[in-house]
Amino acid sequence: MPERLDWDSYFMNIARVVSSRATCPRRYVGAVIVRDKTILSTGYNGSIRGMPHCTEVGHMMENGHCVATIHAELNAIIQAARNGVRIEGATIYVTASPCWTCFKALANSGIRRICYGEIYDDERSFLVARRLGITMEHIAINHRVSAVSVPPAEPST
Ligand SMILES: [Zn+2]
Ligand SMILES: [Zn+2]
Predict the structure, then answer these.
(1) How many CB atoms lie within 10 A of CB 36?
(2) Distance CA 125, CA 107 (A)
(3) Is the pLDDT of residue 40 over 90?
(4) pLDDT of 100-137, one tens digit each?
């Protein structure tokens, strides 16, 4: 019998599956918001609803970043809002640690624990999280049990 996955790895793997739907090839990120072992919402980085994807029309570059997409964490918050789901006190599993903008939104939406796969640049999120009592926790993405293949990100220019 293969070893049974713990809950954190389980939800992080689901976040990885969610990331496979991302539409900006510069970075594939997926997020899952969870409370009491129940998924409340999911999100991946993609264009505004109704707008073409980066994969169709190219990126919208600004200061070395593509700003065409809404990030996975924000889309997860937005999906909860659209459906009237309360996310106060929840945990978010995100395949890359949040950028400063997403971190601010997560903090104000009442998320109390941020579990991330790989580290993405922003040190401010970590410092402010400590001050606010928001837990930041690294959860390894277990590629062995992940059934989906997510394409590698484009090399940054
Ligand atoms: Zn893009
Ligand atoms: Zn972000």
Answers:
(1) 8
(2) 10
(3) yes
(4) 999 999 999 999 999 999 987 678 999 999 999 999 99
Ligand of minimum distance to the alpha carbon of 27 = 1
Q: What is the pTM of this model?
A: 0.88
Task: Give residue 60's Cα distance to chain centre.
Answer: 20
| Catalytically annotated residues | 73
Strand partners, 106: none
The closest ligand to the CA of 24 turns out to be: 1
List Cα–Cα distances, 61 to 15, 24, 91, 149, in angstroms: 26, 11, 31, 26
Neighbours of ion ligand 1 (CB under 5 A): 24, 54, 59, 66, 68
Residue corresponding to tokens 């049974």: 4
| Alpha carbon of 74 to ligand 2 centroid (Å) | 7
CA angle (17, 70, 59) in 5-degree steps: 95
